[in-house]
Amino acid sequence: xxxxxxxxxxxxxxxxxxxxxxxxxxxxxxxxxxxxxxxxxxxxxxxxxxxxxxxxxxxxxxxxxxxxxxxxxxxxxxxxxxxxxxxxxxxxxxxxxxxxxxxxxxxxxxxxxxxxxxxxxxxxxxxxxxxxxxxxxxxxxxxxxxxxxxxxxxxxxxxxxxxxxxxxxxxxxxxxxxxxxxxxxxxxxxxxxxxxxxxxxxxxxxxxxxxxxxxxxxxxxxxxxxxxxxxxxxxxxxxxxxxxxxxxxxxxxxxxxxxxxxxxxxxxxxxxxxxxxxxxxxxxxxxxxxxxxxxxxxxxxxxxxxxxxxxxxxxxxxxxxxxxxxxxxxxxxxxxxxxxxxxxxxxxxxxxxxxxxxxxxxxxxxxxxxxxxxxxxxxxxxxxxxxxxxxxxxxxxxxxxxxxxxxxxxxxxxxxxxxxxxxxxxxxxxxxxxxxxxxxxxxxxxxxxxxxxxxxxxxxxxxxxxxxxxxxxxxxxxxxxxxxxxxxx
Length: 489
Fold this sequence. Notes:
The protein is mostly helical. Helix content is about 70%, strand content about 0%.
């Protein structure tokens, strides 16, 4: 793959990746089916919260009741997330997705039937949403762990960009479609559409057909030991836990300052109001979507450096809305901030896919997600009292400063800013990308396969070896490797 020209700061110039190369992940039919299933399930998932909210409000026009339903799902998701990571690492990830998608279709279908028949009771919705949250805890780690199994290392960023574009498009279109369904035929049909989307997504997982990971006899361990092994991989990579810790704080700030106090400040400013707030959020979504297309062709030598630098503009909307609010300036700030978020998301996903052993991938993603989710309720809870005590505008301005400080401190960590994209012929996932049905029946390996070598994680992993120093591959050091390898892992 031709790499883009990069500067020492980690920036890149477009043109290093041509359009056919940007769409290269679609050449593997397994990824194409996976992407199709992911797109279909995302379409239903962005509609479901809206339909569910109105279904609950039809039963009881109480914000407290709705909050209990939404919280039940979230608590179950967080509670089972680490277990889901272990299961996704232990079994075939496509099979895990197939089963979880089918189960989600059943549970969400049950909610839809209860709502449509008018026989629904509060405890039934709570129970089924707990089940939905738990099933999602198995789905998320399996999705992230599956990508490097069906995409060669050279095309991981393009694969993540394609997935993000699909998800972003559904995020823009889904809520409008859900609102239309709720208004015309009722919330029950919106939930029914979500159930059907899970069923169709499950069908798309069948052609993916990844095998169960091979293990030596006697290597199956208890759940706690598997979690401990995943934790060891997580904390052994300074760049990984540092960024997760930082984004726990950043997510709390964003959830509290922007999503909680932002609407309040917009209502206090006649030039913005509810309509302007909606425009600002739409601009952020447009920025995300446009930058996804750009990231299909843009590459970075230092992905986390570029991603974190791109996060800096996300403080601008906080400064604008807490300062002298101007709708045009707020829309521009949100547009740029949304684009920056997308740069970070794609570079972060690619960094993990390239630098974490495949057989620990889902557990690491589970720890990452847990660190992100755990902080959001904290931000949502504490910012109200802070605004009452100190005033909303000062709190939001201070939050913008704290946001910038956390980003800059994270960039100051050498293992974070100096993490490089490795050469395309030395990924830990090279062998994984050639397993399954697509590899069957080949008489001889291709030239590209020979150049990559066997690769793949060994049965007994030495965590002191980085992703470019797997057993049987040339040990080509990269920036930050020495800092990682001298730790007692």
